[in-house]
Amino acid sequence: MSSILAQCPLLCHPDTPCGALAALGVQISLTEDHGWDVAFVAVGDPGGLRLPAPTGPVRTDGLWRTTCFEIFLALDEDAYAEYNLSPSCAWAAYHFDHYRTGMRPLEIPAPQISIAIGHERLIQTARLAEDALPWDRTGEIGISAVIEEASGAVSYWALAHPPGKPDFHHRDCFALMLPPVERG
What we know:
By secondary structure, the chain is mostly beta strands. The chain has one domain (3-177): Immunoglobulin-like, CATH 2.60.40.1190. The chain has strands at 3-12, 21-30, 36-44, 68-74, 80-85, 91-96, 104-105, 112-117, 121-128, 140-148, 154-158, 176-177.
């Protein structure tokens, strides 16, 4: 059994409209073993999306070049972690020392990713083990998505957007604060 930590809508960047989706949101739940279940829910026409081919749970760079869901965790004033979770079930995780600099792979257990596609809904879930969360869960979080439509059009979704072009690494996107986890 898990407890819900947050449910949030993602906002489409105004310069990148999405014809295939009417809404996109995320739910983060705490698992019994203090990991996370993260569910991304896209509502609209899943058939109008370009999804990468299934690959299984392999670490892969460049997942953000097509439909991909992302989580950012503020680690301190400058450092942060980035997780890329693909509908293909491929994944990547990085540590950044500062804004877009000092990037290196973050060594974590592979997330368990699954996808369900219905007539009007796509749901991608990812289970992140506690060991995959290099952080005490009290800092700022960014949740975002790159959505590529079958036409090739790309939209950018996030909890919040900074002024200007889409930039998920910008701290304005880290718009979620979770309550401290109580361990009993």
